[in-house]
Known about the structure:
- By secondary structure, the protein is mainly alpha-helical.
- The chain has two domains: 21-83, Helix Hairpins (Orthogonal Bundle); 94-196, minor pseudopilin epsh fold, CATH 3.55.40.20.
- Helix content is 50%, strand content 10%.
- The chain contains seven helices and three strands.
- The chain has helices at residues 22-46, 60-83, 94-104, 107-120, 166-169, 173-182, 186-196; strands at residues 124-130, 136-141, 152-159.
- The protein has a three-stranded antiparallel beta sheet.
- The longest helix has 25 residues, at 22-46.
- The chain is globular and about 55 Å long.
Amino acid sequence: MADKIQAVPLKPATLEMEGISRKTMEEHFKLYQGYVNKVNEIREKLETVDKSTANQTYSDLRELKVEYTFAIGGVKNHEIYFDHLGGKGGKPTGKALELIERDFGSFENWASDMKQTGIAARGWVWWAYDVTTGKTFNYIGDAQNAFPVWDNIPLVALDTYEHAYWLDYQTGRAAYIDAFFKNLDWDAVEAQARKKVPGW
């Protein structure tokens, strides 16, 4: 029987944020829950799919495997995003600030680049750590499963799909990104980085 995953509940602080409403977060969580459900559904279907019909143009196996990457991407991206919201924003301390200042020159440069990358993105922006080079970079991902870069560990995930801000800002993505920065929980970012980044 296929392993099932469960949705990670929202932290209470994410429902009381400045500039990102409770309604937005509740609706956003429902979308994330949908990804969790689809991951479980696809895993179950993969157990009985007819692999003998596998084909690169179309086959049930191909369709399930491709859409699995979208569903599991939706789960993982949102779990990072939700985990590091609900904070007080401002500058990070410790290793995060050290890397930002080293790789971007200053926190202000990083925040500006992150914001403009968010304006340019269709779906996601990740501030990520490259295990091979030891450097960080703000990456664009236009979909849940678009442009993952191997050996990179996402540290901050910014959701730029309209569902993340439409109820609060309509087309005002820039204002939403400003609100995102005000609610970043740098302690949560640091805690996750310590678990995942070698030598953090």
